Amino acid sequence: MLPQRQPDLCLVFMKLKGNCHTGVTRALHERDIEIQGDLMFRTLSFSMLAFAASFGAAQAQTEIQWWHAMGGELGAKLEEIVAGYNASQSDYKVVPTYKGNYAETMTAAIAAFRAGEQPDIVQVFEVGTGTMMAAEGAIYPVYQLMADMKEPFDPKGFLPAVVGYYTDTDGNMLSMPFNSSTPILYYNKDVFAKAGLDPETAPKTWGDVEAFSAKIMETGAAKCGFTTGWISWVQLENLSAWHNQPIGTLENGFGGLETELTVNGPVQAKHWENLAKWQKNGVFQYGGPGGGADSAPKFYAQECAMYMNSSASRAGVMANAKDFSVGFGMLPYYEDVQGAPQNSIIGGATLWVLQGKPAEDYKGVADFFSYLSSPEVQADWHQFSGYLPITAAAYELGKSQGYYEQNPGSDIAIKQVTLNAPTPNSKGLRFGNYVQIRAIIDEEFQRLLSGEVDAQGALDSLVKRGNELIREFEAANG
Amino acid sequence: MQTKRTIFKNRGLPYLLLFPQLAVTLVFFIWPAAQAVRQSFLREDAFGLKTSFVGLANYRQLFNTPEYLNSLHVTLVFSVSTAALALVTSLLLALSLDRMIRSARIYTALLVWPYAVAPAIAGVLWWFIFNPTIGVLPYVLAALGYDWNHALDKSDAMVLVVVAAAWKQISYNFLFFVAGLQSIPASMREAAAIDGAGPVKRFFTITLPLLSPTTFFLLVVNVVYTMFDTFAVIDATTEGGPAQATMILVYKVYRDGFIGLNLGSSAAQSVVLMGIVIALTIVQFRFVERRVTY
Q1: Measuring CA to CA, which residue among B35, B60, B65, B55 is closest to residue B263?
Q2: What pLDDT, in 10s, does the model give residues B112-124?
Q3: Rounded CA gap, A453 and A445, in Å?
Q4: Membrane-crossing residues (chain B) (predicted)?
Q5: Between chain A and chain B, how many beta carbons pairs sit less than 8 Å apart?
Q6: Structural domain boundaries of chain B?
Q7: Sheet of strand A62-68, all strands in order from the earlier edge strand to the far edge
Q8: Which of B44, B46, B133 minimises the CB distance to A298?
Q9: Contacts of A203 (CB under 8 A, 6+ apart)
Q10: ipTM over 0.85
Q11: Do B133 and A476 lie within an 8 Å CB cutoff?
C-alpha cells in the first residue's frame, strides 16, 4: 500500500525541500497521456527483447515474467531478491519488469491478458483482489498451482491476518502474499517533550489524540496535532476493523458478490464527524486524496506532531526525520466502543499467477514462490522495507537475530495486526470495483471537510454510490 | 470550383497516393472509434472473459448518474472559461505587441516558449506553484488573507486548472493573433484615426471584425483543446478532484476505463464525448462561420 516508488527525482527533491512528495513523482513519471500507446510500445519493445534473448540465452532455461509495481529502492531490493533466486538454480530465470504504479501494473496485465501476452506473475494491490478473484478463467490459484506442481506448501505457516485477506471462503489461498503492511501511528518525540508530554508514551485512544493535540497546540510545540495518509484505508477501513465494525455485509464481501457496504454505522459516523471538527480547529490537517501525498511533509516538517500511515512508511519516516526522534504506536481507538481494539487489516500487494502459459513456466513459478516465502528472504525484505513478515518463521528469525530489540517500534505493526484473532469484520474486505469505491471514499470525505455534508450524509452517500458499483460488478461477473 | 482539377491518366495512381493517409486514418482513428462504439453496447468484466450485449444500458445509466451530469457541467464551465481566458489574454498580448517596433521579435519568441513545454510538465509546475503545503502562491495568498486550498475548495481547484490549461494555450493563440493583426492593412486604421475614431472604437469596428477568421479558427481549436488535450494538466494537478469538481469528460473516460476497468461505461462516455465535439464543430462551422467576415 505504500511507497510504490521513490524515484531519483524524488531524491533530488528531498535534497531541495527536505521532503519528498509521492504526488510529484506521480505526476512526473507515472502518468502518461498516451497510456494505450505507451502500453503498446512497452509490450512491443518487451517482446522484441524477449525474442532477442531467446537466441542469446541458454535454451535450457525457462523464463518467468514477473510484472511488478515496486519502483525506486523497493524495486532495487526486489531485483536483488530475484537475482538471488536466479543465482541459486539454473533451470529458471525470473525476469522482473517494472510496469508503473499499482493501478497501471494491474491494467497492463489485464490488457496483456486480453491480447494473449500476459506475464506469468503479476503484482496486484489489495483493492484489486475482488477483480482478480472474480476472473476465474484468468487466474491460476496459488494453492492449486502448488498442488499441481507438487511443491511443498503450508498455508498455515503464513500469518493469518495476511493470508485471510487472500483466501476464498473455503480457506484456499488464491494469491501469494508478498508485500503487506498495516497502518500504524508515528509521533514526534521532541514535540511531545516540548509540549510537556511524556515522549515515551504514544496516545492510545482518540481521546488521548485530542488531549495531546490540544496541549501541543497550546504550548506552541507544533501547529497541528495529527495528519494521516490514506483516508480510505486508515480512517475508514481500518477504523472499522479496529473497532470490530462491519465494512460490508456477507463478511465484508468475502461471502459473495451480493455484498453491500455498511460503513455508515454510528462508530464511523462519529469518527468522521470528529475528523471534520478537528480539521476546523486545526487538530487535524488533511493530506489529500489517495495516499495523502501532502501528509508526510507535514510530519517531516514538524508541522504536525502525529502521523498515521503504513508500517512500510517507516523507511521514509526514518530517512526524513533528521531533526527529531520518532516514536511508534498502535492506531488509536474509541474506548467506549465494545470490542476495540480488535486487530487492524492489511494493505499492500500479492502475486497473482495468470493462466495460459506452458506447464514448464508454472513449475518455475511454484519453485520461485517457495524461495520467496523462505524465512531468510522474507525476513530480509521485511526488515528492509517495513512490510510485514508474511510467515511466522520470518518473524521468529527476526526475533532470534535481535532485529526488533535493535529497532524499537519495528514490531508494532505485527503486534497490531495479530492483536486478536480476526473476526468476520476484521479479516479484510473484498468488493468488486473497489478501486473506484476508494475514489468515492476520498470524494465524500472532501465533501465532508468542505462543509457540504455532515458525516452521516457523506457516509450514506458513499454507501449508496459504492453499492451501485458493486451491483454493476455483480452484473458483469455474476 | 472545378478549375484546378488534375487529371490522372492511371486510375489507380490517385488511390495509391492517398493510401498512406487513408491507412493512418483508418488504423488510428476510424478503427478505435468503431471499437469504442461496439464496446459501448457491451457489458464485460475486466479480463474479457464474460461479455454480454446490453443495448443502450450503458448510455441510460450514464445519464441517470449525477456524477456524469456533474462532469458535463464541469466540462462546460472549464471549456468556456479556459477558451475565453486563453483567447482574451493572447489577444491583449498580440495587440500590445502589434504596437512595438524593435522589440517585437524578442517578445514573440518569449511568449511562444510555453507552447514547447509538455502539458504534463506544465501541470507539475502549476502543481508546485499552487501546492497548499509547499507552494509559493498559497503562501503569498495567505499573507493577503486568502486561504488557498485546491485540495478541498472546489472553486480554487477550478481556477487552478483553468489557469494552467489556458496558460498552455496562450502561446498558440498569440501566434495566430499576431499573424492576423499583421494582415490588417495599416491604412484602414490610419483612415479611421484621421476620421477621429479613438483606439477603442478602432479596435471594435475595424480590428476585431477583420480578425474574425482568426478568432473563429482559434475558437474551434481551443474548444477541441479544452475537451481533449487538457488531460495531462488535470492529471498532474487535481486528478479530477476535489469531489469531482474538475472531473472533465475526457478525464472521467480515463478514470472509469483505465483505473476503474469499467470498459462499457467508459466506451459509452467516449462515444458521447465524440458526439459532443462533432456537434460543436458542425455548429461552429455552420452558424458561427456565417458571421465571420473573410
Answers
A1: B35
A2: 888 888 877 888 8
A3: 9
A4: 12-34, 72-95, 107-129, 157-181, 202-225, 267-288
A5: 111
A6: 46-291
A7: A92-98, A62-68, A121-125, A347-353, A176-181
A8: B133
A9: A185, A187, A209, A212, A306, A329, A332
A10: no
A11: no
Please give the C-alpha separations between residue A47 and each of A21, A186, B30, in angstroms, as whole numbers: 33, 44, 27
Identify residue B22 by its one-letter amino acid code.
L
Q: Pick from A469, A429, A437, A441: which is nearest to A133 by CA?
A: A429
H helices then E strands: how many in chain B? Answer: 15, 2
Q: Contact, B206 vs B193, CB < 8 A? A: no
Nearest-5° angle of CA A159, CA A160, CA A163?
85
Chain A contacts of B244, Cβ < 8 Å?
443
How do residues A398-440 score in pLDDT, each as one tens digit? 999 999 999 888 889 999 998 998 899 998 899 988 888 998 9
What is the distance between the alpha carbons of residues A203 and A197, in angstroms, rounded to a whole number?
A: 10
Spell out the CATH class of B46-291.
mainly alpha
Question: In sequence order, what are the beta bridge partners of A64?
Answer: A94
Q: Is A44 on the interface with B (CB under 8 A)?
A: no
Q: Cα separation of A59 and B216, whole Å?
A: 64
- Which of B132, B254, B262 lies at the smallest CB-CB distance from A433? B262
* pLDDT band at A353; cut points 50, 70, 90: very high
CATH code for the part of the protein at A32-181+346-406: 3.40.190.10
Minimal CA–CA distance to A442: which of B208, B245, B62? B245
A16 lies within 8 A of chain B by CB: no
A109 Cα distance to chain centroid: 19
Residue B127: list chain A partners with CB under 8 A: 23-24, 27
Question: CA-CA distance, A388 to A179, in Å (whole number)?
Answer: 7
Choices 3.40.190.10, 3.40.50.10260, 3.40.50.20, 3.40.50.300: CATH for A183-344+432-477: 3.40.190.10
Q: How many Å lie between the alpha carbon of B238 and the closest alpha carbon of chain A?
A: 10
- Confidence band, pLDDT 50/70/90 cuts, at residue A133: confident
- Rounded to whole angstroms, the Cα distance separating B165 from B87 reads 12
* Residue A435, min C-alpha distance to chain B (Å): 6
Closest C-alpha among A7, A231, A233 to residue A101: A7
**pLDDT for the residue numbered A371:** 94
- Give which of B68, B160, B261, B270 to mutate to test A binding, by max A Cβ within 10 Å: B261
On the question of pLDDT at A4 being above 50, the answer is no
Please give the Cα distance from A477 to A139 (Å, whole number): 14
A432-458 b/e with 16+ CB inside 10 Å = b? bbbbbbbbbbbbbbbbbbbeebebbeb
> So what's the pLDDT on residue A24?
36
Helix%, strand%, coil% for chain B, nearest 5: 75, 0, 25
Q: Tell me which chain A residues have a C-beta less than 8 angstroms from the C-beta of B132.
A: 294
In Å, how far is B250's CA from the nearest CA of chain A? Answer: 11
Are A458 and A268 in contact by the 8 Å Cβ rule? The answer is no
Q: Which amino acid appears at position B192 of this protein?
A: A
What are the CA-CA distances from residue A393 to residues A15, A78, A181 (Å)? 39, 20, 17
pTM here? 0.81
Q: What residues does each domain of chain A span?
A: 32-181+346-406, 183-344+432-477
